[in-house]
UniProtKB/TrEMBL annotation:
GO terms for biological process: methylation. This is JA-methyltransferase. The keyword Acyltransferase does not apply. It comes from the Eukaryota. It comes from Ulmus americana (American elm). Keywords: Methyltransferase, Transferase. The gene is JMT.
């Protein structure tokens, strides 16, 4: 895990982490599948309906993991070395904002629809919580300052175009070319990222995964 030591001491001049640090080392404590009462019922991540304890659990886990990452890299980088980190975040201080959790909300709604159709068990949805957190710039800055090993030289935020921008085409059977709708492109993007996690929890049923996405 990159939340532990990876390289020899003082061996790196430059570190680049891309699209990784929004993944937590584990599901936040208290939200895992061993909990008797699901705190985040019917949801996969932080949402508008999540209790404050869920928001706090995710925030604490991010602080713990990011601090550990910084501490471990500080031991591996030479004095004066540089680090560039790119990962998902949010511009708002509110962790329930749509920019932070809308994709997880879409997945939760789709899964709960499948529950109502008898395709999956509700307990399976209640016991899944994504090991993911999109921090705000303030949270990132605060953790860097608290850990103390690095000086933040620059922080920039970029919007992600979930549907890929320009029109995409897909090669179908027989060489037929079909244009993908915006919804199809978003679904394929999300599926490419989270399908393996969902399969590990809900089972490797290709029909269920196809229906979900």
């Amino acid at each position: 895990s990159f939340y532990g030591r990876v390289f020899p001491k003082k061996s790196l001049h430059f570190v680049h982490s891309s699209s990784s640090l929004h993944w937590l080392s584990q599901v936040p404590s208290g939200l895992d599948i061993n909990s008797k009462t699901p705190l985040n019922k019917g949801k996969l991540y932080i949402s508008k309906s999540s209790p404050q304890s869920v928001l706090d659990a995710y925030s604490v886990q991010f602080q713990k993991d990011f601090s550990s990452f910084l501490r471990c890299r500080s031991q591996e980088i030479v004095e004066g070395g540089l680090m560039v980190l790119a990962f998902m975040g949010r511009s708002s201080s509110d962790p329930t904002t749509e920019e932070s959790c809308y994709q997880w909300e879409l997945l939760a709604r789709a899964l709960m629809t499948m529950v109502s159709e008898g395709l999956i068990e509700e307990e399976k949805v209640d016991s899944f919580n994504a090991p993911y957190y999109a921090p705000s710039p303030e949270e990132v800055k605060l953790e860097i300052e608290k850990e103390g090993s690095f000086i933040l030289e620059r922080l920039e935020a970029y919007e992600v175009d979930w549907d890929g921008g320009a029109a995409d085409v897909e090669i179908m059977g027989g060489g037929t070319v079909a244009k993908l709708s915006r919804g199809q492109k978003v679904a394929k993007t999300i599926r490419a990222v989270v399908e393996s996690m969902l399969e590990a929890h809900f089972g490797k049923d290709a029909v269920i995964m196809d229906d979900l996405f």
